[in-house]
Amino acid sequence: MTATPNPHILVVDDDPLTRMMATEALREGGFATSEAEDGVRALAAFEALHPDLVLLDVMMPGLTGFEVCRRVRATPAGELVPIIMLTGLDDSESVEQAFDAGATDFISKPINWTLLRFRIRYVLRSAQLLKELVRNKESLSSAQRIARLGSWEWFVPADEVQRSAQYYRLFGQQVETFGDGMESLVNHVYGPDRQMVGAALAGARKGVGYQLTYRVVWPDGSVRTLLETAERTDEAGDPQSILMEGSVQDITEQVEAQRRIRQLAYFDPLTGLPNREFFRESLLSAAARCLRNDSRCAVMVVDIDRFARINDSLGPERGDQVLQVIGHRLRERMGDRTPAEPAGGGGLPRLKVARLAADEFGILVSDAGSVDEVLATAHELLQVVQAPIRVPGQDITLSARVGVAVMPDHATEAEAILKAAETALNRAKRVTRESVALFSEEMKVAAFLRFTLEGDLRRAIGEEELQVLYQPIVDVAQKAIVKAEALVRWPHLARGSVPPPEFISLAEETGMIVPLTRAVMERVCNDIAELGDALPPDFRVSINLSGVNFMDAQLIPTVRAVLDGAGVPASRIEFELTETVLMRDLDYATLILAQLREMGIRVAVDDFGTGYSSLAYLRRLAVNTLKIDRSFVGELNEGQGVAIVKAVIGLAHSLGLEVVAEGVETAAQLEALREQGCDLIQGYLFARPMSSRALAQSLSRACVVLPQSPAPAEE
C-alpha cells in the first residue's frame, strides 16, 4: 500500500480561529489543507478539490455539519472519503446523528491538535487500506494475516453475516463461540464503548457506512483496540437489498503509542502527576460545569519556600525525592489515589492535584464548599507539606505558601481563576506573613501596580534614575573606614522611595537585574575614578551580585569592559555573593571565582550562616571575606548567638579569611564582636548609606570613633 503524498484535508468551520489552528497543526504534520467557512462553500470546495479527508464542524450557520456530511456522501466522489466531525456536543443523540449522516469519526472539543494529526493519519491509512483491499481481493487472506485485519460482509435484511477467519482471531474467539448476526459483536465490546458501536450499527442498517475505534475484551480478560470501517456495496435505494462490507484492524500497538505520547504531553515524568497543560484543560471543564450547575470550584496553588536551597545543599537527587513525597502527600490528602490518565477518545479525566512548575503544585476542587471550608483545606495542605520528610541521613522540614481563588466569587473563566490563585500566592510570598492568601480585588490592583512598576524600573535603568549610596565598613583595630558597600536606591518620581527588596526582586524575576547590576558597576567605577586620591590606596567598594548575575555567561567580559571604560583597577572592587549562590554549582563557582581573583577582584560571602553550606566548602573557593548575617549579630545577647559568631570567626581566621559583621546597631553588639576578634564592622551604629561625596568627607577624618559599651555596675 502506498500512502498518498501530502494528503489534502478540507477544514470546514465557521470559527476563523479554529480554522487557523487546524490549518497550522495539519500543515506542521505534512498535510495540504483548504478551508471553507460554511456548508455551501464546503460542498463547492469538495466538488472542486476532491480532498482526501474532510474535517467538519457540526454547528454552523446555514447548512449544519450533519447536512453537509449527508450531501457529500450522496456524491460518487464522497462515498469513501473519511469525514471527521468536530463538535462540543458529546451526548449520545449527537453521536448517533453524526454516524447516521455518514461520519467516519467523531471528536469532541477542545481539540488536542497533536493527537488529531495521529487520528487523521490512522483514518487515512485505513481508508487507503480499504481501497487496496477492494482492488486486491485475490490476496485478501494473506493481507489480513499480515495486517492483523479481518473482514466481514453483512446482508442487512436477513441479518446474515459472513466473517473471515482472521476476524474471529481479532476477538480471541472461534466461529462457534462468537455468536450469529451483527448484534453479536456488541457482546464482545468493552462496556463503555457499546453505546458507540450500537449507534454505528444502527446507521449501518440504513446503509450508512462508518469508521470507528472501539475496545474488545478477550476471553482471558485482556483488552484490545480495533479500528473498524464499513461501507455499503449494493446499489443504493432499495432498503431490502442493503449489503454492507467492512474491515477490522487491531491497532492496539498504535493506541499504546498514542497513550505514551499523551503521557509525555500531559504528565510530569518526575512525580507522575498531571502537568500544567493537563491542569489547564481540566480547569476549563470544571469551570464550564461550575457555571452550568451554579456550583463552586476552587483553585489552590502551593509553592514550596526556597526549595532551591534543598537542591543546592543536598543535591538534585534528594530534591527530586522530596518533590515526589510532596506530590504523593497532596494526592493522599485530596483523595486523588487512582492514577490520573487521559481517557481514550481525546477526553481528559477530572483531576485534583497537578505539578505546575518546579516547586509549585496546583489543587483543583471541582465541588467546593464555602470559602471557609476551602481555606481550611488549604491550611491542611500546608500541614501536609510541612510534616518532616525523611531522606537518607536526615529529616527535612519545609514551609510553603498557598494562593487560593474561588469560582465564581473571584472569576468566571478558567484562565482568570488560575491567574487569581497565582496572584494570591505572589501576594503571600511578597507581602503578608500569612501562609495562606485568599484572592481579593486589592491583590489584583497591587499586581497591576507591580506590572506598571516593571515598566518604570526598565525606564529608570535606561535613564539612570537609580542612585548608588555607600555604607562604610570599619576596621575595628585601625578605627578606620577601609571599604564600603554599594547600595542601590530608587527615588521613584511618583511613588517616592521604592524599597530595595521590592524592586530588586522585580528585577530578578524579569531579567532586568543584569542591566541594573551593570549600571551599578558603571556608577561605582565612575565614582571611584572621580574621588581619585581621596580614597586610601587599599580602599575597596563591594558590589552585590545576584544568582542571575553570577550565572550570566557575560559576567567576566562585562566586568572587564566596565573597569577598562572607567580606568579603575580591579583591586578597588569586591563582589558580594550569598552562600546559596555559590553552593548552587561548586564547579562553576570555582571557575568564575578563580577568574575574578586572577583579575585582582576580591570576593565576599554575604549573609553567611543562613544557608546549608559549610566552611569546608570555602577551601575550594577563591573567597576573601565572610560577612556574618545580621540575624546572628542581633542574637549576640544570647548565649547561643555568641557561640555561633565565635565559631564562625575562629574557623574563618583559620582559613585566612577576614570577617565582617553586618547590622551592628548597638555598642553592646560592637563590644561582643570586638571580644571575639571580628575584623570589620558595618551598621547604623557608625553610618547610614551616604553619597560618594559624603563618603570622601568621612574618609578625610583621621579616625573613626568607636562607641564604648557602658561599664558594668559595681556590686
Keywords:
Alpha-Beta Plaits; Beta-Lactamase; 27 helices; 4 domains; Rossmann fold; five-stranded parallel sheet; elongated; eight-stranded mixed barrel; disordered C terminus
List the helices and strands and how they pair.
Blueprint lengths: L7 E5 L3 H13 L3 E5 L2 H11 L3 E5 L7 H9 L9 E5 L4 H10 L3 E4 L4 H23 L4 H8 L1 E7 L4 E4 L1 H6 L4 H4 L15 H11 L5 E8 L5 E10 L10 E8 L1 H15 L9 H17 L4 E8 L3 H7 L1 H19 L18 E5 L2 E6 L5 H16 L2 E3 L2 E3 L3 E8 L6 H17 L5 E3 L2 H22 L4 E9 L4 E13 L3 E3 L1 H11 L2 H19 L8 E5 L2 H5 L3 H12 L6 E6 H5 L2 H14 L2 E7 L6 H4 L6 E4 L1 H4 L5 H16 L3 E4 L5 H9 L4 E2 L10 H9 L15
Parallel strand pairs: 1-2, 1-3, 3-4, 4-5, 16-17, 19-21, 21-22, 22-23, 23-24, 24-25, 25-26
Antiparallel strand pairs: 6-7, 6-10, 8-9, 9-10, 11-13, 11-16, 12-13, 14-15, 18-19, 18-26, 19-20
Helix pairs in contact: 2-3, 3-4, 4-9, 12-13, 13-14, 16-17, 18-20
Describe the structure.
The chain is α/β, with parallel strands linked by helices. The protein has four domains: 1-134, Rossmann fold; 136-266, PAS domain (Beta-Lactamase), CATH 3.30.450; 271-439, Reverse transcriptase/Diguanylate cyclase domain (Alpha-Beta Plaits, 2-Layer Sandwich); 453-698, EAL domain (TIM Barrel). It is 44% helix and 21% strand. The protein has an eight-stranded mixed beta barrel with strand order 18-19-21-22-23-24-25-26, surrounded by four helices. Strands 2-1-3-4-5 form a five-stranded parallel sheet, with helices on both faces. Strands 7-6-10-9-8 form a five-stranded antiparallel sheet. Helix 26 links the parallel strand 25 and strand 26. The termini are far apart. The model is unreliable at 338-349 and 710-715 (pLDDT under 50).
